[in-house]
Task: inverse folding
């Protein structure tokens, strides 16, 4: 099961100040302490912290389309509901009336909500990125991040068709396609000693070499421009070259 501690792994992907704050271990542990200690006198600054944490959550959810990813929606809903309850209780001075058992339950629910957010982010990026619809920069961050595609792939930086050169120039829609092709690995064919991700009407052809050990190498990315097979460099690479004969440098 996903752990809330993995939220920090997405900080290098989601370039959002609000997300960085709500996912930091310091903020999470402080919110847990606030929930756990509600029946007692709240330390100075507790109200302001809870208000800020709720505002940061509300700011973060404006940056992604979370509503169609059920795990993500569930986690966000639980966390916002829990923090809102805590904030209301403190404002009304009713926090000391809350049973300690209920506080323990709320703390567990809060952590469960964070776990579901991690689960939802992984699912959204890996299998439903078009629904999640992250920004172009966040999508590029996911491609290059250790929590993202670098779990399975390394990317060439040599040559005009190398992914490091090509990817920043692609539209966000084509970047979604790139992520789906490499994550799902369903639309794949052989071309000589290469694997080509993307067939038929797919807008991209991604040329990859399989690896017996370690991560697969992504050598080149080509836009199809409406053709089944891109011309020029794509044909030269897949027909006349082999992975051992093509220069590769991880970018």
Result:
């Amino acid at each position: 099961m996903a752990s809330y501690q993995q939220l920090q792994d997405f900080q290098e992907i989601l370039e959002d100040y609000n997300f960085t704050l709500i996912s930091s271990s310091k903020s999470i542990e402080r919110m847990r302490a606030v929930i756990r200690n509600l029946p007692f006198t709240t330390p100075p600054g507790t109200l302001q912290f809870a208000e800020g944490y709720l505002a940061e959550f509300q700011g973060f959810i404006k940056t992604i389309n979370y509503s169609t990813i059920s795990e993500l929606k569930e986690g966000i809903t639980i966390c916002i509901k829990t923090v809102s309850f805590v904030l209301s209780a403190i404002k009304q001075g009713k926090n000391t009336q809350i049973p300690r058992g209920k506080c323990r339950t709320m703390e567990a629910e809060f952590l469960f909500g964070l776990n579901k957010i991690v689960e939802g982010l992984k699912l959204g990026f890996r299998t439903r990125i078009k629904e999640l619809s992250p920004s172009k920069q966040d999508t590029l961050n996911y491609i290059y991040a250790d929590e993202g595609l670098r779990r399975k792939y390394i990317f060439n930086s040599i040559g005009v068709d190398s992914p490091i050169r090509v990817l920043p120039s692609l539209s966000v829609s084509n970047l979604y396609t790139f992520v789906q092709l490499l994550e799902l690995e369903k639309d794949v064919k052989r071309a000589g000693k290469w694997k080509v991700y993307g067939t038929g009407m797919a807008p991209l052809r991604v040329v990859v070499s399989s690896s017996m050990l370690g991560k697969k190498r992504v050598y080149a990315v080509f836009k199809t421009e409406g053709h089944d097979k891109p011309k020029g460099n794509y044909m030269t690479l897949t027909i006349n070259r082999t992975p051992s004969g093509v220069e590769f440098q991880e970018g």
User: Anything to note?
Assistant: The beta strands are 153-155, 188-191, 194-197, 204-209, 216-223. The radius of gyration is 23 Å. The chain has two domains: 4-137, 152-245. The mean pLDDT is 93.
